[in-house]
Amino acid sequence: MTFAHDLRSAGTAEPPPTARRTPTAAWRGLVLLAAAVALWLLPMVLDTRSVSLLSRFMLFGLAALGLDLLWGRAGLLSLGHAALFGLGCYTSGLVLTRTTWAANDLVAVLAGIAVPAAFGFFAGLVLFKGRIKGVYFGIVTLLFALLFEQLAGTWGSLTGGFNGLVVPGGITIGPLDLEMPSDMYRVVLVVSILGYLVVRWFASSPLGRAIEASRMNDLRAEALGYDVAVVRAITLGAAGALAGLAGALYAPVEGFIYPNQLGLVASTSFIVWVAIGGRGTLIGAFVGAVIVNGVQSRLSDRFQEYWPLLIGCFLLVVILFEPGGVAGSSRRLVAAVGSVRSRFRARS
Amino acid sequence: MVTTFLNSVSLAAILGLVAIGLAVIFGVRGVINLAHGELFVLGAYSTVWFDGRGLSLWFGVVAAPFVVGAIGWALEVTVVRRLYTRPIDTLVATFGLSIIIREIIKLSFGKGSRNVPLPLSGQVDLLGTSYPQYRLFLTAASAVILGTVAWLAVRTDIGVKVRAVIQRRPMAEAMGIDGRRIDQGIFVMGAALAGLAGALMAPLITLNPEVGPTFLARSFLVVIIGGIGSVLPAIGSAIVIGLSEGLISSYIRPVYAQMLLFVVAIVVLCVRPTGLFRRGGEPS
Asked: Which of A135, A147, A319 lies nearest to residue B258, judging by beta carbons?
């Protein structure tokens, strides 16, 4: 098997498609478009609280997309993704509350993207140049999450400490006045869809292939002339940008930031969403975040107590028995239905 | 000053107990057990269980290694051994296990913090200051256990077998060493030591179900600085980390002390991935 072949088959991360079994690209695009239109119209039928909840879930999904890029594509499991998300939250929250520049809200969002992205890239450069990978990367990111949480709690004069930081609600970006939750929701929807498309494009670009190569065989990728450390650092930077974008918008949507959002438990949630949705599939991370959060918000208060336990069990079961997650199962289901149908056709 | 030093020594001893399991399991199978901190917490709560029934805490200290060891065995058999070939998935799976254990502790013992009474409340005169008896006992007991483990690792054929498996598993197995039994034995021993450390430490900390990750993080620092997979460097670096955290924390805020150690650990990981105390590539 040549290396070029490795790269080509890896881009799609699925078995070579046979035209009859999987829906064609046109169908898939049409379904996605219909879903997008339906989501756009959703605030007409939902109450304000649900709309605002849904914006939050989509932002979680956007951040989870960053983790999926890192974990599913580059093979680098971060146990501290919430540190990047929280960095975006705090950056935009601090700009929103502590400064009064012109176009303040836009600056807040941009800074919320830039700071975690830069942090991810440069921290990644240091770590990956030092040949830290695999489980070591997991440990280091876990320590990052714990430290950031501690730091946000202790550095009270800047962050408001363990009491958290109250962020004013409605923001204005250029001509868009996002006072209404439904307007904010639509912006979040558009940003999420655009974010997803950009990530897909990024993942299938030559750089995206190089990222996959670095996961599958880093020595070989290095021998082919890629600087694996830089490729990985760029991936971590991209994950930071996505998490930061989500966090920067999350701060005004939620209206309140607190140190736990940077911490280990929050990081766990991201891993759970990506694992359940199906790692490496990109859309799975987004769908996983929205579904898991949706289910959780529907649960009664009494059941809420057992939720983390349930999530832990679910995570274990997914990892042990269905590493492909929901996206993997549905793909297998489609393939199975297709093969049954084709066998049926062959007989008759 | 003397008190600070002695407290740091006792912290170092406890860290040694917790970190050994983590380090050796990593050495033998290349997997990290993220539920290790929760095993420590389980040990601590075993004293709470006995205390709640009006019995002496000593029962908890004695029972903890056996109970937590048995739990460790159950985890190894049901979950961890299925994932030895997928180290990163092990990280996720044991992360899931740590959530499950933490939530079960919350549901059975409550979310709040507890104060476990000291089983020895007297003071002793030591180096010119009066020092709590219990802390002295804790340091001595941990030192004895660490010494025993080090003796097992260096002077007995159990240690030789473990090292053989760490160095070259297929060859060791061809020589008749049962690799599966070594994996299991190491996992159970690591769990038992973490449980014992938790039980010993319980009276000295504000115990709540969430303390696992902080002890896990400290053990990681120990493992990173000491290098992976061996007992003696792990003990050595536990002493370094425990002493420096204790001493630095008396000058600056504990958070910044931890941050400093963390930065040092990352530098060590980048510059000397095999740990500070390793000369060649071979584990000792």
From this structure: A147
Task: Kindly state whether residue A186 falls inside one of the protein's structural domains.
Answer: yes
Domain range summary for chain B, segments of one domain joined by +: 2-271
Strands B129-132 and B123-126: antiparallel
Closest-CA residue of chain B to A77: B88
Which of B91, B99, B262 minimises the CB distance to A77? Answer: B91
B149-177: average pLDDT: 87
**Please, which residues bridge with residue B129 across strands?**
B126
Using CA atoms, how far residue B103 sits from A123, A305, B213, B242, in Å, is 33, 9, 14, 29
Whether chain B has a CB inside 8 Å of the CB on A77: the answer is yes
Candidates A146, A312, A323; nearest CB to B96: A312
pLDDT tens digits for B2-11? 788 888 888 8
pTM of the model: 0.84
ipTM, two decimals, is 0.83
Give the containing element (helix H, strand E) for B123.
strand B123-126
Question: A78 in a domain, yes or no?
Answer: yes
H, E, C per residue of A166-213:
ECCCCCEECCEECCCHHHHHHHHHHHHHHHHHHHHHHHHCHHHHHHHH
Chain segment B231-281, per-residue pLDDT in tens:
888 888 888 888 888 888 888 877 788 888 888 888 888 777 776 665 544
Contact A271/B at CB under 8 A:
yes
Residue A91 in any domain: the answer is yes
User: Which architecture, in CATH terms, is B2-271?
Assistant: Orthogonal Bundle (1.10)
Distance, in angstroms, between A157 CA and closest chain B CA? 15
Residues 6+ apart with CB under 8 A from A12: none
A206 lies in some domain = yes
Amino acid at A335: A
Residue-level pLDDT at A70: 92
3 state DSSP class of B114: strand
pLDDT score of B277: 67
Q: State the pLDDT at residue A326.
A: 76
The total domain count for chain A is: 1
Q: Which domain holds residue A226?
A: 50-261
Do β-strands A165-166 and A256-257 pair in parallel, antiparallel, or remain unpaired? Answer: antiparallel
Residue B163 burial (CB < 10 Å; 0-12/13-18/19+)? buried
Which amino acid does the sequence have at B148?
A: T
